[in-house]
Each structure stands twice: as structure tokens, then as C-alpha cells.
Amino acid sequence: MPALPKKKLLRLYHDMMLTRMFEDRLSKLYRQGKILGGLYLSTGQEAIPVGTCAHLREDDVISPVHRDLGAFLIKGIEPRFLMAQILGKETGPSKGRDSFLHAGSKRLGIIPPTSILASTIPIAAGVAFAFKVRGEDSIAVSYFGEGGSNRGDFHEGLNFAGIHKVPLVLVCENNKYAYSTPVEKEMAICCVSYRAESYGFEGVTIDGNDIFAVYDAMEKAVEKARNGGGPTLIECMTYRIKGHSEHDEAKYQPAEEKEEWKQKDPIARFKKFLTESGHLGESEEQDIIDKIASALDEAVKFAEESPFPPGEDALKHVFATNEEP
Amino acid sequence: MPEITMVEAIRLAMKEEMERDESVMVIGEDVGMYGGAFRATEGLYQQFGPNRVVDTPISESAIVGVALGLAIMGFRPVAEIQFADFISCGFDQIVNQTATLRYRTAGDMFAPMVIRAPSAAGVHGGLYHSQSPEGWFAHTPGVKVIVPSSAYDAKGLLKAAIRDDDPVIFFEPKYLYRRAKDDVPEDDYVIPIGKANVLQEGDDVSLITYGSMVHHCRSALEKLEAEDLSIELIDLRSIMPLDKETIYASVKKTNRVVLAYEDHKTLGIGAEIAALLSEELFEYLDTPIVRVAAPDTPVPYSPPLEEFYLPKEEDIVKAVHKVIEY
Ligand SMILES: Cc1ncc(C[n+]2csc(CCOP(=O)(O)OP(=O)(O)O)c2C)c(N)n1
């Protein structure tokens, strides 16, 4: 356990709670029919985006995927704008063009995900290569699931990153399932981190439900990347508590297995530490929750009151020449 | 004859073909125990076991490549790409490996395989769960491309595709999976690849379409009913090969053509048909050919944007009026 100041610890706790409470709101909105298309939640995996993004600077660039809601928030997208994005509103980063977390921002350093799994890994390698070519000490961080790591883009991206020793941290969220497919049917090895070695850099496997383990591993990887030491792959072992998406009952996940992992909930674990070590009193905790709740009330209100984009805007932004129709 | 949905018809086609022919296999993501993202393969794993219903990792290139290897060895694999939008990840295996095999071996080797993929929009899928990539493959010599519009057709066409000795890409408009319902015969029937279906005969306009647009064309026809017009509605069924004979016969009769498709307008199937007609039947055309299609943008997510993007029945009605009033 690292000696982190109280303020920092409570920040991490706040960010994990924010992620969970944000997603709880999404779940509600989904049931009200206000979110169209798929809704993929990160319940039980919140420590990973939170513990990794905690080390990033404004000038660093991330490429998150569908279960990284926390990363978008920590990297700076305000909850109200992210909420508007998810509801398909004009005020979201993609102005209604793309769905769910498919939101990016050049200013904030967020490469927008597409649904095409692992496709952003070579892109993040390219971003990191740009930092290296320019002699800057910024880094890129690429997130992906263990399922996505079976696509060619993962392997091609890692190989390039290894050859050029680019400042890239690869964060694998190994939640044991790719949709319905258990990890044993996805790969013949136990750990995605093994794959890093064959591309010439270090891979580590850690407990992704332990915020301190995530925080520590990321600290080392970031320092190495900033100092010219090249990429690291951090495989965070975790578990997908909910179905693949909100419509999936996930009957293929054994009940005992789910129950066992619920006991390892990263937020409950962290809270236990914080209370037992005297960092988090009851009123402090209530304060954090109240603040998040009212920020989310505001975000939902903003998003719901925001207009949808006008239909003919569909024609805008294909090329520079048609920014305005 | 029970009434079943398109997705059930697709499942039945695979089941019956697997019962009929031991060389037929199913391969793809989540197709086994889970029964597929859209439940198209439900029950097949339980019935045929893991050697014939194969779950794969998220590896579209390997799904197509492995299917090709199996096909070379005499199997008849039916590969599922979870969404047509992800077929691009297996593009090389399709266009450079699969499509060319027969040609480059002068007929010695060939690829009797099917690639199924749910395609097209209308379900708020956004950019990556809505695409209609049939044009890419129709442009690739060596693969056949089918887009069914009904449960009945889906069953008969998929059976034909499985029995075909060349690779067939079978795009299933997911908008129709549960909306399209038909009385589908329980016994074996095959609908030939490369034959269009004249759904309604008429003398004034040839309305040529396929996939989910067939349904929008039908509702456009209902709107046009009050007007004294005689419209011939043609469902292409096969995009490649195109049934030129049926198209030409219709146009020779009507002399006016509206082409409706959900893909981007530029270089879509309608562009090819319009070019063919101007080359082959120029003297039969009384008016310019009109295309109703999506604009050349990605498929947007937000409801008003998707609504604007998708070609609709009003657009079809307008296009029909345009050729009539020309
Ligand atoms: C190239 C590609 N193939 C298939 C899919 C469909 N799909 C979406 S998420 C998913 C499972 C992803 O598993 P993983 O990468 O482990 O991430 P997780 O959802 O478990 O967080 C699948 C198969 C996709 N989005 N992209």
C-alpha cells in the first residue's frame, strides 16, 4: 500500500464512485428507453480507468474503449457533456453523430473509440510515436479487453510499439468474458501480459480490483514511458459483473463465480481500507456521495433538456469543405 | 406452414443443411452455447457439437481464413461475422484470399463457403452497427452477394448459398430479423442465386430494390394506391450476380426506373444498374433513372440524424412521381 496523501486517496475514491453512480443513472435512463443502442457497463472494473488515469497529465493522450467511462471523465469530459453524448444530443462531443462512449476530444487528449475492437491500439502507438519523434515526454495509454487482444490490430500495434520503443502504456482489462465467450475459449495462455514479451517489452499481470495495485503498476509504467523506456502492458485481472450489455442476461456466467467476484468489489474493498485507516468518516463519505449525486442530477437535466441535432446536420463534417452545409 | 421470423428462418436453413450434409459447419463469435448475438445459431451447438459449431475469439480475419481452409478441405463452412460493420477486419481474407482462389488455381481449388453478417440500419446502431457494405463485395470478382428481404427468401437463399460451390456473402438486414415474418414451409426448398423476384407486376414504373428497402417500397406503394399507377416492384435478392434478364424485361415494358437502396448513393448497386441500363437499354428509357439511397456520410446515431439519413417511403413516392411527371 503506497503512502498516498489523504486528498489523493479521496480523489481516487470519488472517481470510482462517480463512475459507478454515473453508470447507475445510465442503467435507469436505458430502462426508460432514453438510451438507444447498446449500453456496456464497467461495474466492478472501476479501479482500472481510475487508477491508471490518475497518473496522466493534460498533454497525455488516451484511447479508451466501451467499458472505460471513468477514463473519459477523469481525462476531462464534463459529466453533462458525456451524458449528452450518450443521449445522442447536439451538446455531446460527437453532436449526436456517434453512440455511447464514442466520444473524442483533441484538446483533452481522447481518441474516440469505434466499435471495432483493438483498432485504436495501432492508433495509440502512432500517437506515442509522434511524441517520441517530437522529443516530448508525453505518453499515450491504450485500453482494451482481453477479447480485443485476439485481433490482428493488437499484435501489429504492439509489434510497432516494441520496435520503436514508443511511450505507450497498454492497459488490458481482463474481465474473463468477451461477450459470452469465456477467456479459455479466447486464448490458450493464461495471461495477455505474456504477449508483451514477444514484442520486446514488459508485461505484468495485476489485481485489477485493487486500486493500489493498479495505481502502482501504472506509476511504474508511466515513469518508464516518459523516460524513454518504451511500452509496458499492464493486464488488470477483473470480472464483468453485469452482462455484456444491458440487454444480456448473461446466464452463461455461473452464479457462484459472479458471487465470488462481487465479494472482491473494488469500491467496497477500497472503502473498507479508507474507513479502517481513518481516512473516510461517515459524514465525509456522505458528502462525496451527495456531491456526485447533485452533479449527476445536473448532468442528466442538462442532457435531457439539450436539443437533438437537426436531421440535415447529418451531412456536415464529412470533409473540411462541408463543415457548414 | 408455421409463421416464423427471418432470424428463425436463417437458423432453420443452417440446421436443415447441417442435418442433410455433414460437411456443413458453423464458425464465428459467440455462435456456440450462446447461440449468436442475434440467436441465429441457437441450438446448433447442442445438436451438432463443438466440432461442427465452432466458437472463435474476436478474430474476424481468422474466422474467414479458417473457413477458407476448411472449405479447401471439403467442408462447407458458414462463418458468422457478428455485425457486417466488422467484416472490414476480415477484408483481405475475403477479397484477396477467398474471392480469387478459383481463378488463380484455374478451377483446381475453390471455396464453397458462406459468410453471414447482420447488416444495415434502422435500429439506432450508430456508425458501427448500421453499415450496408454489400457494394464493396459486389465490386469484388469471385464472391456472390445476397441480401434477403423476407423470412421465406432468407431460408431458401441461405440453403442455396450453402450448397453453392463459390463463396457467398449473405447480408441479413437486422431491421428485418424479427419484423419480417412469413409462412415458411417446413420442407426443403431452395431459391436460386442470381434470380430476382417480381413482387408486383406493373406497366408504368420499374421500382427495383432489395433488403429492408423492399418493405419501405411496399409501404410507398400503399401510399400510391389511390393514384392510378401501375408499378412493377422487383426485389433483386442477389446483388451479385445481378438478374439482368428480369431487370431488362421490366424496363422494356415500363420505360421508367426508380432504384431504391439503403447503401450510400455513390457507387452503390443502383449506380451499376443505372449504368447498365444506359448502356443496354438507352432507347427504351423515357425518363432519367432516379436513385433513392442514403447520402454519402457515415450512418449517424442520433434519431433525427438517422431518420434524415435513411431513405424513406416519402422519398420513394417522390421519386416515382418524378419519373411519372417528367
Ligand atoms: C472487431 C469486432 N468484432 C466483434 C465485435 C462485437 N463485440 C463487441 S464487444 C465484444 C466483446 C469484447 O470483449 P473484450 O474485448 O474482452 O471487452 P469486454 O466487453 O469484455 O470489456 C464483442 C465480441 C466488435 N465490437 N468488434
Kindly describe this structure.
The complex is a heterodimer of chains A (325) and B (326). Chain A contains twelve helices and seven strands. Helices cover 43% and strands 10% of the residues of chain A. The radius of gyration of chain A is 19 Å and the shape is globular. Chain A has 325 residues and is of the alpha/beta class. Chain B has 326 residues and is an alpha/beta fold. Chain B folds into two domains: 3-183, Rossmann fold (3-Layer(aba) Sandwich); 197-325, Rossmann fold, CATH 3.40.50.920. In chain B, 36% of the residues lie in helices and 20% in strands. Chain B has twelve helices and 14 strands. A seven-stranded mixed β-sheet of chain B has the order 3-2-4-5-7-6-12, with helices on both faces. Chain B has a five-stranded mixed β-sheet with strand order 9-11-10-13-14, with helices on both faces. In chain B, helix 1 (6-20) runs parallel beside helix 7 (151-163) and helix 8 packs across helix 12. The complex binds thiamine diphosphate. Thiamine diphosphate sits between chains A (67, 115-117, 145-148, 151, 173, 175, 177-179, 240) and B (29, 58, 60, 82, 86, 89). Chain A: Keywords: Oxidoreductase, Thiamine pyrophosphate.
Kindly report the oligomeric state of this protein: heterodimer
Shape, principal axes of CA atoms of chain B? globular
According to CATH, the homologous superfamily of the largest domain in chain B is: Thiamin diphosphate (ThDP)-binding fold, Pyr/PP domains
DSSP summary, beta strand count of chain A: 7
How many strands of chain B? 14
CATH topology of the largest domain in chain B: Rossmann fold
Q: What is the mean predicted local confidence, pLDDT of chain A?
A: 97
**Gyration radius of chain A, rounded:** 19 Å
Q: Give the N-terminus to C-terminus distance of chain A in angstroms.
A: 56 Å
Structural category of chain B is: alpha/beta
Shape category of chain A: globular
Strand order of the largest sheet of chain B: 3-2-4-5-7-6-12
Order of strands across the biggest sheet of chain A?
1-2-3-7-6
Percent helix of chain A, as a range, is 40-55%
What count of helical segments of chain A does DSSP give?
A: 12
Tell me the CATH architecture of the largest domain in chain B: 3-Layer(aba) Sandwich
**CATH homologous group name of chain A:** Thiamin diphosphate (ThDP)-binding fold, Pyr/PP domains
